[in-house]
Amino acid sequence: MFGWSKSRGCERLGDSLWQWRKCKRTLSKLRSEKRRCLDLTEANITFCQLNNRFPNAYFCIGDAEKLPIGSSCCDIVLNMEASDLYPSIKSFYHEVFRVLKPGGIFVYADDLPTWKFDEGERYWHELGFALLMSRDITGEVLLSSGSKESHSRFWI
């Protein structure tokens, strides 16, 4: 698990929560006044809007490399298994740092090659993030999928 903190209110941004089940589970566990869920695909956002039961949740279309929200306004940014598809992952990391409040937390899990995580970790430090926790979950992911091998590492 990657838990990165920006150097030390309450709003949360969940990026690319395109699976309603995942979004619903995440929203029910997070306690905050506002929850914004972002996806690039209009159909996914429409589905979430139609099935939303959380009064403080807002679903919007947007690009994770150009987050459509102000600077220093989120306490938590959550990204699960999406950044491997972004054309510029560094632009995404920069945007996460920009929108987090001081002391905010970036919760991140993805299936990137180990070298790409190592490169990302160096970049996060350059931006000013401090690592709170890191856990390799490759074994658990492979066990749950029935696979025995992977060319990527999964981190949560």
Structural class: alpha/beta
Rounded to an integer in angstroms, the radius of gyration calculated over CA atoms is: 15 Å
Low-confidence blocks of residues:
1-12, 15-21
- DSSP helix fraction: 25-40%
- Look at the structure and give the mean pLDDT: 76
Distance between the termini: 3 Å
Q: Helix tally?
A: 5
Order of helices and strands: EEHEHEEHEHEHE
* Main β-sheet description: 8 strands, mixed
Write down how many β-strands occur, each being a DSSP E stretch of 2 or more residues: 8
Describe the fold and architecture.
The protein has 156 residues and is of the alpha/beta class. 34% of the residues lie in helices and 31% in strands. Strands 1, 2, 3, 4, 5, 6, 7 and 8 form an eight-stranded mixed β-sheet that branches. It is globular, with a radius of gyration of 15 Å. The protein starts with a strand and ends with a strand. Residues 1-12 and 15-21 have low confidence and may be disordered.
Descriptive terms for the model:
5 helices; disordered N terminus; alpha/beta; 34% helix; 156 residues
Draw up the topology in text.
Layout: E1 2-6, E2 11-15, H1 20-29, E3 34-39, H2 42-51, E4 57-61, E5 74-80, H3 89-99, E6 100-112, H4 114-127, E7 129-133, H5 138-145, E8 153-155
Parallel strand pairs: 2-3, 2-5, 3-4, 5-6
Antiparallel strand pairs: 1-6, 1-7, 6-8
Helix pairs in contact: 3-4
Can you describe this structure in just a few lines?
This protein has 156 residues and is an alpha/beta fold.
